[in-house]
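worker-03 picked up job from queue 'complexes'. Input manifest follows; three sequence lines, order preserved.
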Amino acid sequence: MHRAFCWLLAAFLALAAPASFAADLAPLVRGLGAGSYAETEKAIAGLAETGDPAVVPVIEALQAGDLHVRKADGAVVVAKRAGNGYALTDPLTGAALGEADRNAVEKIRINNALRRTISATLGALTLMSPDAGTRRQAAEAVFKSRDANALDALNTALAKETDERVRRAMTQARASVLLAGEAPDADKIAAVAVLQERGDQDARALLNGAANTGSDAVKDAAMKAIASVEQRLALWGAAQNLWYGLSLGSVLLLAAIGLAVTFGVMGVINMAHGEMVMIGAYATFLVQEAFRQWAPGLFDFSILVALPVAFLVSGAVGVAIERSVIRWLYGRPLETLLATWGLSLALQQAVRSIFGPTNREVGAPSWMSGAFELGGLTITYGRLWIVVFAFLVFGALLVALRKTWFGLSIRAVTQNRSMANAMGIRTARVDALTFGLGSGIAGLAGVALSQIDNVSPNLGQGYIIDSFMVVVFGGVGNLWGTLVGALALGGVNKFLEPYAGAVLGKILVLIFIILFIQRRPRGLFALKGRAVEA
Amino acid sequence: MLTRFFLMGLDKKAGVLLTVLAVLAVAVPVMALGTAPDSPWHISTHTVALLGKYLCFALLALSLDLVWGFVGILSLGHAAFFTLGGYAMGMYLMRQIGSRGMYGNADLPDFMVFLNWTELPWYWHGFDQFWFAAIMVMLVPGLLAFAFGWFAFRSRVTGVYLSIITQALTFALMLAFFRNDMGFGGNNGLTDFKEILGFDIQAASTRVGLFVATVVALAAGYILASAVVASKLGKVLIAVRDAESRVRFLGYETDRYKLFAWTLSACMAGVAGALYVPQVGIINPSEFSPASSIEAVIWVAVGGRGTLAGPVLGAVLVNFGKSYFTAALPEFWLFALGGLFVLVTLFLPKGILGLAAQLRDRLPARATVTAKPADQKGV
Amino acid sequence: MSTEDTLLYLDGVSVSFDGFRALNSLSLVIEPGEMRAIIGPNGAGKTTMMDVITGKTRPDTGTILFEGRTDLTSLREPAIANLGIGRKFQRPTVFEMHTVWDNLELSLKAPRRPLKTLTYSATREDRARIEEILDITRLSPRRDRPAGSLSHGEKQWLEIGMLLAQDPKLLLVDEPVAGMTDAETEQTAHLLKDIAGKHSVIVVEHDMVFVRELGVKVTVLHEGSVLAEGSLDTVSANKQVIDVYLGR
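worker-03 finished. Artifact:
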């Protein structure tokens, strides 16, 4: 009697008051615990009528089997196991209602029919949400569940929907439901068209289903749609590979560009180049530690501070190496190779002794985290920034070599050392600074790589061979060659990967370069003429 | 005729080295097998294996010196030939395990059973015969070197370019051998050997036998290398090292000369690897790593490239230092090795033997010709 | 005269490096047994011409025939050398680590294949020939010294000796008397004239005294092609030659 009254009241309120009166939901919720399945279903319907988003967690709790009736007062509560008993919370407000013995509450049971109602209601409720994002998510959920019960709600929602993107999502969801369920051929064929328009993996799966089960007309349409979708998917797949290739290429470019300066411009083989990258990454780690310590609020800027720091630290190490070792070995490239290899071993061990052999944690600032979708592409911000950064560094270096006095000196020394000396250029200083520049750029690469790779003493080892391949492939002494080399190798690598696997792809690229160098010993962009012979 | 050919290269240094090897070949077996374990003269099988390992490295260093010291090709990929030889021997040793493996499969090595393979891959056939494996030990590295060199030398890839692509070669092989489906045991490589030629591989007498075999191989390699270097062909090689284009204008196809030395060197490295594997009991893809190749280069540099005794001395010294330091001061070893690279290139460009020769020359003012490697030209 | 009878025949040979024309439609004919002097200012293409003949540089266009039939443009350096074309470089290039004797032994006409050299041992005739060349080049006392320890002039002579040991049909000699004393220059001229009887010789030289000493036909190169040809007196009188090279 008492409960019946409540239900009446609830129904009345539901009819009389629209969604705005959240407080008035409580009696409706209470109705969920009324007893029979039929009554529960009615209560759900009542809650659904309100169209109030606050109802959603309640029904979700019901769906999850967390909704209980407190025997003492008939209140509907969310009960979760805690120790021997239950911890109770209010389903609407989430407020804690203390604990209860296992016998003090009774679970509100649901059957399959009810379950369908619940999910349909949930779908419908969220489809009506005032927030467009929620509506779109709800539509996506229906798209995935293909729940025929949601069809009415979808139709209603579609009729009211004004947002173009949400409309599209709902139309697609509707098509998914129609195609999966019982519907006239005409509707199904229309649905096929909608799914073809969508054109992703999910759409293909749905269309595949239709192609196997539908009537001949539907099958025919679905087959055609699948062909079109697959073509489109292949296109997006290629685009995604292109992006991965560009991303890998820009990493290679960053790692190789400093080498292009020391090897390409100075003719110095720096096997410790990878360690300059590694030092840059550790500099980033230290800068971030400092920020964590003293200015955690400004953490997002730590990377920007790390850039100059890494450039200077790696550059200084580079200058020190040039002054202490390399300057004695000019004109003896093979000896330089060995000596710098020795330095790389010592630098690795030094870093291992100071920072330990394990990986160091380098965080990503918020503006480098996350990803966004571009058509069928998923692009992470971290990778995007690295691509942008690689091109910025490349451009800056190009300008520095072309337009500054320092760049002019470098080119003068490269082309004719003794003449440059006679013109008053301090060649020893130019050598040291050029090497420092190459090393500093490696340090910048280290900042970028710290975002996508493990910061460990072995960081540099992983890049040194690839970097040499890029420079040798692109052609020594030509920055554009390095750019093309890096992007080409990155791209080829990523395009081979789906077919050959990552390792085999890499092996194929190495073999390709070995053969390529034998065809064109001076790389892609080779200098010609007598100067080269010397 | 043939005896004369092999004897013509032997000089005083060779005499000393061969005598030392002969003494080792007698003394080590006697001390290891003929003395009581508590005798001060006794050496353990572990030490015998260690000495054997050093001598394998010495043979590798010798082979590297043949191309670097005498032809001017700095190979950063000799570990590839060494390891391929090692794998060829390892495959024989794997086949000798027979049904004594963990899975008791008489036809397939354990790792293949583990991978659910049902049949021996075609390239494993024949390796149950020692003679076949022994041929492959030289043939496989030799063929790879021949193919690689044929392309590289014809296209006149020289200097650091050549060094870098040799490094890429061994790197590519390392990646390949890490793959399980290559059929060489992937990551773990080949190990758990039981027998060689029917002898228990763990037995002290077998260890001593392997050691003596290594001494003989090193001596043979040394005599062969001396003969090659002393022949007119050796003179052409040195001429190629110092002024390659001039040699071409004299009518020598320098590519073929380089290819000869390169392939011979690879075969020697393969033998060194084959002797190494049964003594250390394992071969895995990390032996291919470019770092091991470069480490071999420093042995040659320390001893003195362009001399044949130098690399042997250098390999033994550096590896003795490595064994000592990695046990006593593990942190220090990479500093020491790194420092060695820098110091040798800066201050000892001719290595220990070169330094000795310089000091000797300074006393009596008599010019003896030591083959001083000139600097490789051209970047 | 038909091309069949020529020893070396160059026709319309051009080479350019990055837009710079080092040889510009060069044509030149050398007869068997002839000695020819080539003169010309720096950058006239003298060294490039030698590079093209010996296979170091491939011409972009043009024909180079040896003995009227063998096309040199498609051959590699060793093959050309083995046809019988020897070359002496502007900067003396000898094998500094090898003894004078070994330098000559390496140059001596003998099979050039690796396996032949591996088993080679000098025959009595070989040794006699080397002794003879040591006498001609006056290097007998130096025979066991490393070539790197020789003086500049001695290296020049050793390189000429290496050419003799090769016994080529055509010798290309680039500035053989650079850095020599007057007496040495004179001796060199005599030596080359002796050689010219049996072999053809092309001499590139700046030293006019030396060229006069040789007393042979002279070809003047300028900007990659032939400016004038004839006796030294004839070309010396040529106005163009005076303008670009000899000066007033």
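worker-03 released lock.
Chain A is about 70% helix and 5% strand.
Confidence is low (pLDDT under 50) at residues 9-22, 528-534 of chain A.
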